Amino acid sequence: MEENRYRILVKGIVRRGDRFLLVEKWYDDNIVEPYQWEFIDGEAEFGESPDNAVIRTIQEQTGLNVVIDRILYTWTFMMGPVCNLGLTYLCLTDMEEDDVVIPEDLHDAKWIEPEDFPDYIHNQRMLDDLEKADLYSAF
User: Fold this and answer.
1) Global pTM?
2) Which parts of the chain fold into alpha helices (H)?
3) Residue 2 confidence class, pLDDT cut points 50, 70, 90
4) Most distant CA pair in the chain: distance in Å?
5) What is the CATH number of the domain that holds 101?
6) Domain boundaries, position 22
7) Does 87 map to a domain?
8) Domain contains 1
């Protein structure tokens, strides 16, 4: 009997005032558009709660301290025999915008207003999820 295997992914949408933090990542398997703007994401370590994982991931990737406001949406996908379960959190910070310190594996960071999401995020499914989560009225 094969046992179930799950991987827990977290995505942190960080809000400061009326703006949201995007980070620019490099994808060497995407020749057409190797740099892509996204929210901060990572994976929960074994035994770590998803709440703690998203706070840790944001702190490690940006240097920002955040508090969780709420879960916005979830998603799943299969990769081989592993079911990936993702939780997207709305997180709040009152740290200054220039307090963001990104590691070498990220290219840039930018604070934008929600109406500018389509100008940066090209993943239509993510844009649809943001619309369903009513993120635009999160203020």
Assistant:
1) 0.88
2) 50-62, 117-120, 124-132
3) low
4) 52
5) 3.90.79.10
6) 6-137
7) yes
8) no
What distance in Å separates the CA atoms of residue 27 and residue 17, rounded to the nearest whole number?
30
Domain total of the chain: 1
Please indicate, yes or no, if residue 74 is contained in any of the structural domains.
yes
With a cut of 90, say whether residue 104 has pLDDT above it. Answer: no
Distance between CA atoms of residues 53 and 9, nearest Å: 9
Mean pLDDT of 79-95: 94
Phi, psi of 98 (to 5 degrees): -85, 5
> Given this model, what pLDDT does residue 128 score?
87
First to last CA, the chain: 49
pLDDT of residue 28: 67
Cβ atoms within 10 Å of 22's Cβ, excluding its own: 22
Tokens of 14: 């960080």
Taking alpha carbons only, the member of 82, 70, 94, 86 closest to residue 38 is: 86
Question: How would you class 110 by CB atoms within 10 Å of its CB: exposed for 0-12, middle for 13-18, buried for 19 or more?
Answer: middle
Q: Which two tokens stand for residue 43?
A: 């994976």
Residue 121 belongs to some domain of the structure: yes
Residue 38's nearest CA partner among 57, 65, 18 is 57
